[in-house]
Design a protein that fits this description.
mainly alpha, ABC transporter involved in vitamin B12 uptake, BtuC, 81% helix, 0% strand, globular
Amino acid sequence: MEILPFLLAPFLASLILTGIHAYLGVHVVERGVIFVDLALAQIAALGATIAILMGMDPHGSGAYWLSLAFTFAGAAIFAFARTRRGHVPQEAFIGIAYAVASATAILAMSKATGETEHLKDMLVGNILAVSMHDVAKTAILYGVIGIFHYIFRKQFLLISTNPEEAEAKGLSIRFWDFLFYASFGFVVTSSVAIAGVLLVFCYLVVPSVGAMLFADRIGRRLAIGWIMGTLVSALGVYFSVLFDLPTGAAIVCTFGAVLIVMFFVHLLLSRRHKIPIEDATPMRDARHHVPQ
């Protein structure tokens, strides 16, 4: 019981991550750009590495804004990488950007060996080290981004779900894509510093994938994703205390276990719905072949 107050800030941070990432995950899954957050996170890490080489404090505002600038550059690349006819999948450009950013960061780190531990902390993250001040600051930032997405929700959802119709209505796909990825960059740059790449990726993708197993409408997916993220966060924090495990890794593994359970539940429900239909067909055929 003594450790519960210590875990309050990490748990609140995980709830905030659930709120924004479950929503963004719906867009990411619909767009088919599953690994965009990993690519943007690596680009942000590259910016942090360059900041270290320039003598900046890796935890200071200068390094943050430089990382954000690199993330905006990546957002512009991803926005313009979407071709009208789709000769080259956008995911290919995202993968290339991730590989190049990773290699460049490795080269840059080789020149700043004394500061690589700071970069490792940013990539791996340590959600247990988050403070209530960090929680409040992150909540305000994500709240502003959430309001921005709510105001322009029709444009973002239409481009994510039906880009052809959005283009027919006169919307600039590349402009709105840039706004989406730029706002996404704000989230990723801040989230990775708190929770690390793996946990951020799970909050982004797993709730949306789990929700797609049971719902087709966006509203229901969001509701399922938020509920799943909240329950998994609570379970992950609880297991980390119960078994003395790293909190971030515990939440990631809990996400995987819960998703597996949801998948089997989905298979069970699907089979129950199909059995009556399959059984009904032979019965109908048999009635037609009853001897007169």
